Each structure stands twice: as C-alpha cells, then as structure tokens.
Input
Amino acid sequence: MNDAYAVDVEEVFKSFGSFKALNGVTLRVRKGEIYGLLGPNGAGKTTLIRLICGLVEAHGGTVTVLGRRMPDIAVLRHIGYMTQQAALYPALSVEENVRFFAAINGAEDGVREALGLVQLWERRGSVVSTLSGGMRQRCSLACALVHRPELLLLDEPTVGIDPQLRVQFWDYFRRMAADGTTLVVSSHVMDEADRCQRLGLIQYGRLLAEGSPADIRAQGGSQNLEEAFLALAGRRES
Amino acid sequence: MSGRRVRAITRRLLQGFRRDRRTVALLFVAPIVILGLLGYLMRGSSNLPNVGIASQDSGPLGALVASSLKSSSHIHAVDINASDGDAKLKDGSIVAYILFPADFTRQAQSGSVAPDVHLEGSQPGEDSPVLQALQESMISLASQVAGRSVNFQPRVHHLYGGRNYDTLDYFGAAFVGLVVFFLVFVITIVSFLNERSQGTLERLMASPLRRGEIVLGYMLGFTVLALIQSAEVLVFALAVLKIHNQGNVLLIFGMEALMAIAAVNLGIFLSMFARSEFQAVQFIPLVVVPQVLLSGIIFPVSIEPTALQWLSDILPLTYAVNGMRDIMVKGADLTSSGLQLDAAVVAGFCILLIVAGTATLRRRLA
Ligand SMILES: Nc1ncnc2c1ncn2[C@@H]1O[C@H](COP(=O)(O)OP(=O)(O)OP(=O)(O)O)[C@@H](O)[C@H]1O
Ligand SMILES: [Mg+2]
Output
C-alpha cells in the first residue's frame, strides 16, 4: 500500500444477482488530485463510489481508502459523499439539513462556510421541499463537504446547476484540491472532465482507460475529449 | 370521458401489483389468516374456565348440584375448600368459585336458593359461562324438589372490579396501552422507510454514525412523542371517560412508556423487511390484528384453545395488556410478582428488538 494514494481499488468485482456491475476494476486516486470518473449510464460509476465509502461490499478484490481497508467506519469521518440524487430531509430547512450532517460528523462550525459556498446562506431558512431542483443539489453538496473531509466523493455534483455556479463550483473544487483534499467526481460532461487532473473511463464495469485528459486524448487519437472517449469506448466494444 | 384513458389507469395499477408479489400475496392471504384465527378462536375447542366448587351443604342437594356442574360444558369444575377460594382466585388457578351454604338443601326445599358466586373479575366475559353453568344445573335441582319451582338468586361477589364496572372499564385499561402501541408503531415504521426511500439512510451509512446510534436516536425521538401521547391518552381516559383506576397513575404511565418503546423498536426492525411505505403499512394487519385478537383484550387468554394460548404467551402485547389490567383493575403495584413479570417481558422484548434492529440495519442497505 502506497501512502500517496487516497483511494486504492484493486481488482474489484461486484454483482447484483447474476449481473456483474463491476468486473475487475483497478484504479488509484492520488492524494490531493481531482479524479474524474467518466462513463455512460449504467457503467458502474455510482456502484464504484458506493464501494469506496463502504456502502456495498466487493465480491472480490480490495478497496483501501486513506490507508485503511474498507469497509472501516473510522475512515468515514474523513469522507464526504454526495449521492447522485439529492438525499435530504424534505421537511427540514436548508440550514437544519446542513447542520444535521455537520453534527453527525462532529463539525458544527462548518455550516456557515458550506452554505456560503453553495450560495444558499440567504435561503438557509427555506424548507427543502420548496426548493428548486438545482438548489436541492447545492444543499446536498453543502451537506457532503460541511465537515471538510479529506476525501470528497461527488456523484454527478453539477447536474442541474446553472453555468455560472458550475464555474464557481469547479474553482472551489480546485482550491480544495490545492489544500490537500482529494476529490473523486463522476460526470458525463466533457468540459468538466477537462478540469480533472486524471480521468478514469468506465464501461461495462471495467476501466477502459486512465490518465490525464491529455493522455486520454492521445490514447483515443483525437484532440476532442468527447471524440477520444467515444473512440476508446467503441474500440472495446467491437 | 375516454374509455381508453380509464383503461390505461386500470392497467397501470394492475401491472404494478404484478411486480409486487408480496402485496398480492398479502391481499389474498391476510384475510384468510385473520378470519381463520378468529374462527379458531371462537369455535375451536376452547379451554373451559376453571371454577372452584365448595359445598358446605349438610343436606344432599349441594353435592347434587356440584356434580351436575362438573358435567357442565361451560366450565371446568373442581372441588375446593371454601377457605382457599380467594387465594386461588388471586393466583389465577380459578376464575371463579361457587359456594353452597350449609343450609342449601333447606333453602331449596323452601323454594329459593342463594349460592355465593365469587368472581375474579379482572377479565371481561369470564363471568357469563359461570352463571350459565350454574343456571343450567339448577334445572336438575328443580327435578329433585318435586312439585315446586325453585327461585334462584345467586349472590355475586367480585374480587376485583365489580358491579359498577362497565365494559369500557375492562377494555379501557387494555386500550390505553394499545392505542399508543399501534400509533407509535405505524409512525415509526413509515418514517424509517422514508429515511430509506429518500436516500438519507445511505448518507447516514456513509457517515461515522454507528448502527446502534441510529437506532437509539430514533428510539429516543419517537419515545419523546410517544410519552406525550401516552400522557394525553391517559388523562383523557381517566378524566374524561372516567375509566376506573385502582392503581398508581405513574405505574400506568410507565407501562405505556414501555409499550411505546417496544412499538418504536418493532417499527424500526420491521422496516428492514419492507421496500416501500406501501409494504410497511401491510405489516399492520399481520402484526397488529393477531395481537389484538390474542392478547386477551377481547377474549380472555385462559379460555383460548391451547394452541392459541401458546401463541398468546409469546406475544408481547399479551403481557402489556395483562400488566395494564393488573394496575388499573386490580390495583397492583411493583411488589406484585405478576406485574413484575409483565413489565420484565415487555422490557426484554424491547431489548431484543433493539439488538435485532441494529443487526439488520446494514444488511438491508446493499
Ligand atoms: N442495487 C442494485 N440492484 C441491482 N442492480 C443494480 C443495483 N445498483 C446498480 N445496479 C446495476 O449496476 C449497473 C451500474 O449501475 P450504476 O448506478 O453504478 O451506474 P452509473 O455508472 O452510476 O450510471 P449513471 O450514469 O446512469 O448514474 C447498472 O446496470 C444498474 O442497473
Ligand atoms: Mg450513477
């Protein structure tokens, strides 16, 4: 085990019934980098992220997070997980939601900063069920990072977020990475992929390619990341 | 009005059920189970209530009536000493005893008998088979005293309860606890499922929270609500409905609280076996109805068919209902071994459910 890695996934298999969702995935995320997980619908991105935070157990292989074999409850206080669907308490206000997730992680002092970041400080009193979809997504992000985790797992965090805020999110992600936080971000959006330091392309539960955006371009033989991605995906299929 | 659109809704509805086999099964199995249970309970070979017979009659007629009572199909008559009667009522080995006084034969010959009927009185519906059996045995008496009808005036005494107790007094004691148990169970199971279906449980599982902390936190939260509800129900029952109460109000409240905690944990535990609020609600007929039928609220456990008695004996509500009646009708306090047992069983059940709920929490997530 190398201490330079925040996440070390080795030859992991995961089946749901007879369906193989993850089929021997190996990937390593370095500390302090932004790692982008790309792949079509059903590729296994969410399953991989849930595996990293110990929500599902692998049928084979090992998952090591921040130096500890998962599942390990002690590591969880250093992980922030933003689920793909905004998982919030609809009857609670924005602030009450964020404060709750802060409290269970023992970090009540981060509430104001987290709400400021997602620009919901003004709306902190609004009940979540009355928010727009994008605002819920922002509130969900605030809940994931309120305890300033060392490893932030973001499952399609910018879906439904308007362009201005999306730019601000990525600025913030980069600042967090610069401060030493490791981010794993799943996405379908190629201009977001370009902002990651490294990318992993997943399809059919396998890692197709891994490397910096430039590496991926070279491997796919195209200057356009999207085309490179489609080329890599197609090559494997045929 | 378009027939096609209406059909589309109908079809959609039935298609959904096709994938939810459990709901379909419940729809067709639950009524049979519940009605079958009810049928067995009321028509099955019920156990006859034990009734003590003490004849002090110096003439022959007391023994005659006693032997006719022993062949009665309503009760199971056993000979006892008059002086043991009250003790046997208290320890529950008999539900009533009938005392024929020394001058019983003379009374009969003079045309009017007044046997003493001592009832335990804490259970509703236990007195009618006793009085019925006695009434019937009087017919054999009349044939012995040729030529005259015998006037029959039993003197009924109650160990607990009494004439001024109506049906509500018996049911009320049990229902005070049942209402709390039932409502708290429903609220808990549905809101724990909400946690699952809105995805927040997944987040809790990815946080440093331990399973036991989640279960305990839930338990405390709902217990606060349940205690307020218990207090409200209790005040209403005692002050507005004026249900008779012989016992300590704090004890009733304590028993209610135990029932509420049991209900919370039952809700958490059973929510692990439901995938939707819809399935959760289905636990109500399966969990609550048999308990209401078998816990002795309506039919005394002592006269249930033996197989159902075993079932009653493992249902926590049986002990809870018994405890409530012990307090409210009998005026039992904490020195009563019966109440100690009831409270201990309900408390033990709570602990069992907390452990079970905690153990199943993570398993059901993946
Ligand atoms: N609990 C589950 N039970 C059965 N199958 C599952 C379960 N979770 C995931 N799968 C299957 O595993 C595969 C991968 O799902 P996953 O959610 O990881 O995809 P994804 O890459 O996140 O897709 P998307 O981009 O649409 O979010 C899918 O085919 C999905 O149907
Ligand atoms: Mg996904």
Remarks:
- The radius of gyration of chain A is 18 Å.
- The first helix of chain A runs from residue 45 to 52.
